[in-house]
Design goal:
- This protein is mostly beta strands.
- The chain contains no helices and eleven strands.
- Strands 2, 4, 5, 6, 9, 10 and 11 form a seven-stranded mixed β-sheet that branches. Strands 1-3-8-7 form a four-stranded antiparallel β-sheet, with no helix packed on it.
């Protein structure tokens, strides 16, 4: 069974920083893109950042220059370093992985979500 386990969410003040981590475990043979999405109350889930297996990254305009996504392929882990946080960054952050599992083949997998709250 494939699992994505997130950690690192919590409460931060505006201008502060938080670091999210997401570790993938299970019977997998490859991880392609890994990314972070977020969903604020009353809003649709949106892409925050994504990193490919080759290390290419893409960011939402709203977080460019403030957030950095990275991955450790040896640990099957993706990180999101969030700096200069704003109250509008408050949301549940979800880890996503496009990966291949031995039992189900290639597919999209999600973590359970971690709350990030930024106070003004």
């Amino acid at each position: 069974q494939v699992r994505l386990v997130e950690s690192g969410g919590g409460l931060a003040q505006a201008g502060g920083s938080l670091r999210l981590s997401c570790a993938v475990s299970g019977s997998i043979f490859s991880i392609y893109a890994m990314g972070w999405y977020r969903q604020a109350p009353g809003k649709q889930r949106e892409l925050v950042a994504v990193v490919t297996s080759g290390g290419s990254t893409n960011y939402a305009d709203s977080v460019k220059g403030r957030f950095t996504i990275s991955r450790d392929n040896a640990k099957n882990t993706v990180y999101l370093q969030m700096s200069s946080l704003k109250p509008e960054d408050t949301a549940v952050y979800y880890c996503n992985a496009d990966l291949g599992s031995w039992s189900r083949g290639r597919g999209d997998y999600w973590g359970q979500g971690t709350q990030v709250t930024v106070s003004s």
